[in-house]
Amino acid sequence: MTRQLNLPALLRQAMSQVLLAGQLLVEEWLRPDGPRGQGDEAAVDVEIEQRLRKALLDLLDCDYWGEETGHTLTGHRWCWVVDPNDGTSDFLKGRKGSAISVGLLRDALPVLGIVYAPVTEDRGGDCIAWTEGMAHILRNGDPVSIDLSQQRLDTQTAVMVSAAAATKPQLNAELCAPARFHCMPSIAYRLARVAAGDAVCAVSLYPVSAHDVVAGHALLRASGGVLLDEHGQPISYRTEDAMAMVSKRCFGGAEQACRDLSVRNWERVLDAPVEHLEEGSNLRLL
């Protein structure tokens, strides 16, 4: 059966399930007393993944890796990789931009990705998806053609960094220069937006697991981008240990931009105190 798998048809079916699951996230966001949970644990995350796990395995019965419901790795060549709400802690703090992330590995290669942010600051619901066999990424159902392969850091481009960067804008502006920087939750959604042409690179300064990045990695492949670790090496998913901690930092997007950013001293951001900007400061934010 899997030898004749129609990936574009599978993508359409999986997208339908992700969009339905996204309604749970919207409803949670709109609760009068706010989303349930604290820290980085939200009740809706488990509810979404339980729903998605059953639906996805009904579509393709194979291995599975999920943030909330655990994993089953048997050596099957196919593996679903799911984060039901990437950016939970920001979601619970009232920040828009967390995302459902569904990826599919074939022999450890990301070949399908769906990243859906149902509540965003600037785009409403935003679903970015692709699989092998498709000529273009789909963004909210419309084809998008992006080529990251020759893009560079320059004054016309942006780098997507975590929401925490808003507390240290001067350092982030310096480290992302000559590009602007854009703060937002969810490394999955940052990678997806890079793949869709909104920026040249997405950065995570903290350890990531497979469920954080597989879907975004697939989308980057569609746009001629790469996903590199803190040493500038391509990220892979060949072992259970590698799935559990893909990298300590990651840089996804145009290869040259990722390599340039990966060698900069990001420890400065992690070690620095919160900045207090003077009125009238002029920083290169998106």
TrEMBL record:
Cofactor: Mg(2+)
InterPro entries recorded: Inositol_monophosphatase-like
Keywords: Magnesium, Metal-binding
Pfam families linked: Inositol_P
BP GO terms, sorted: inositol metabolic process; signal transduction
Cited Gene3D superfamilies: 3.40.190.80, Fructose-1,6-Bisphosphatase, subunit A, domain 1 (3.30.540.10)
Keyword Oxidoreductase: no
Entry superkingdom: Bacteria
Positions with a binding annotation for Mg(2+): E67, D83, D86, D212
A GO molecular-function annotation: inositol monophosphate 1-phosphatase activity
SUPFAM superfamilies: Carbohydrate phosphatase
Family: Belongs to the inositol monophosphatase superfamily.
Designated name of the protein: Inositol monophosphatase
